[in-house]
Design goal:
6PGD_dom2, binds ketopantoate, Rossmann fold, 5-stranded mixed sheet, alpha/beta, oxidoreductase, globular, binds NADPH dihydro-nicotinamide-adenine-dinucleotide phosphate, 6-PGluconate_DH-like_C_sf
């Protein structure tokens, strides 16, 4: 399978590298700084499932050529428009686009641009980061990539990707017939975790050990589940039980990529995740004062960051 990976950050570097190791012909569409790192050091992965240093073929955005079976789209949401422009010349009639971004609204945007049939649904459950030195570091043993056709068909192309990924070390990939339901579940999971950890600037254990912390997280979980249900995606009871337990665990150290990005002074997907959920809560008539506070907190952070007034680490 020929795979073009947009971005060689945490997820693009990790899953792209693992699929490359499994035998895919892989190239990375990257901007100049990352391109220099990859040319100098190769694609470096540090992982509980085995470290790797792989040769990485790279192309500049917009110059990836054609003939790709799959484009793995791994940018952050705030880079989506630039990423669309970067992959456009590489999308042919046989190319499937698999975005692994958190959130939901990018699917409609990609479908509007490339046609509904070109776009798969996808989600990643992993904790990974790209260090300043260009190392893709997997932070724990989470390694799940889930994808499927948005119309639920188990098509030859999703089966082929699942078969390739089954040969890859350090990842568990599943082709599923209900990817939109899975993406809503991920949004409830991530949305609750991100609102809580970003608003309170703490991981789930630190929140659970603080007065009222478990109650706040559980209220958020219920409200996000109510939003999903109002959109036709009720959360299964087993899913809710798993996350109630996670958010109540005083020994937990669960954090989100949004909290990591914010603590590093980086850009965050405030509109795509927090703004989206706030709008969806309003539309569904779900109480949303916590959503409002989290979104406001994130937008005020962006103001401060853009003005260069973040404390120096
Ligand atoms: N990290 C995690 O643990 C998880 C992340 N996610 C989600 O996955 C998505 C990706 O996150 P993550 O991998 O952490 O992000 P990263 O910031 O680590 O990687 C994104 C990469 O995309 C590149 N990129 C963006 N736009 C372009 C472009 N136009 N052309 C070329 N390269 C581009 C960036 O390059 P440059 O360096 O040039 O900016 C960057 O290296 C997000 O939606 C996130 O919420 C989901 C689950 C877990
Ligand atoms: C759900 C979670 C926390 C881990 O996959 C995530 O998606 C993130 O950190 O962005």
């Amino acid at each position: 399978m020929r795979i073009l990976v947009l971005g060689a950050g945490a997820l693009g570097g990790y899953f792209g590298g693992r699929l490359q190791q499994a035998g895919a012909e892989t190239a990375y569409l990257v901007r100049p700084r990352r391109r220099e790192q990859l040319a100098r050091d190769g694609l470096v992965i540090e992982s509980p499932f085995g470290d790797a240093r792989l040769p990485a073929a790279t192309h500049a955005p917009g110059q990836g050529g054609g003939g790709w079976d799959l484009i793995l789209l791994t940018c952050k949401a705030y880079d989506l428009e630039a990423a669309i422009a970067a992959i456009r010349p590489s999308v042919g009639p046989q190319t499937a686009i698999l975005p692994v971004l958190n959130g939901l609204s990018h699917i409609a945007r990609l479908q509007a641009e490339f046609g509904a049939g070109a776009v798969l649904g996808g989600l990643a459950k992993i904790q990974a980061t790209l260090t300043a030195e260009g190392v893709v570091r997997q932070l724990n043993d989470w390694r799940w990539l889930t994808f499927g056709e948005t119309d639920g068909r188990m098509s030859p192309r999703v089966e082929a990707l699942a078969a390739l990924a089954a040969r890859a070390e350090g990842m568990v990939a599943s082709a599923v017939p209900d990817i939109l339901q899975r993406m809503w579940e991920k949004l409830v999971h991530l949305g609750t975790s991100a609102i809580g950890t970003v608003l309170l600037r703490a991981n789930t254990g630190e929140i659970a050990r603080s007065p009222g912390g478990v109650g706040v997280m559980h209220r958020l979980l219920e409200r996000n589940a109510a939003i999903a249900a109002a959109n036709g995606h009720p959360m299964p009871e087993a899913f809710l039980a798993e996350f109630r337990a996670l958010f109540a665990d005083p020994k937990g150290s669960y954090a989100t990529s949004m909290l990591r990005d914010l603590e590093a002074g980086g850009r965050i997907e405030a509109d795509h995740i927090l703004g989206f959920l706030l709008e969806a809560a309003r539309a569904a008539g779900v109480p949303h004062e916590l959503h409002e506070a989290a979104y406001l907190h994130a937008k005020a952070y962006e103001q401060r960051r853009d003005a260069g007034r973040l404390p120096r680490g």
